[in-house]
Amino acid sequence: MKTKLKNISYMLAAATLTFGLFSFKDGGPKDNTKIPVVGQSIAELTAPPFVPKPIGKREATKLIVNMEIKEQEGEMVDGVKYTYWTFGGSVPGSFIRTRVGDEVEFHLKNHPDNKMPHNIDLHAVTGQGGGASSSLVAPGHEKTFSFKVINPGLYVYHCATAPVGMHIANGMYGLILVEPEGGLPPVGIPNKKWTKIY
Got the DSSP string for 49-101? Predict the structure, then answer.
């Protein structure tokens, strides 16, 4: 019985990460496919614990994300070295911030000194695999794929190259925030639209 409960709690935790940590109470996302996209900008990526500036009220845009995969040595604890597999050179990987309606052009580079092929599965991407099949990239190469973000929330991303667990355990995971139209409310001000579901 304890094993069953433990397995159920793991499944619930996985579902929370898969479907985002936040959701709307007002019946789900609107049809954001009609939001016009204007201009183009380069996404600001930050290493944890820092996060990029809020999106705010800016219009939907073409957002270019440049991310490099690096297999690099770091110090786990004093005197203990470990080769981490990273998105953007940090564990967790670089924080990505976007907004509903953005068309994201994602450039994923696998550093030439790396030993393994990698890819990325962004749970903010609607569709099977979150871009994983479009982004499998060998060392020294780059893949580019595009998607439109339509569901607001905070989502996980990770490497989905087999064995997936090994890539995640070596550091290949991070977060992508999709802000709603108009941005997020200031911290400390109640907003009935957002509810935590964990």
Answer: T--PPP-TTPPP-EEEEEEEEEEEEEEEETTEEEEEEEETTBSS--BEEEETT
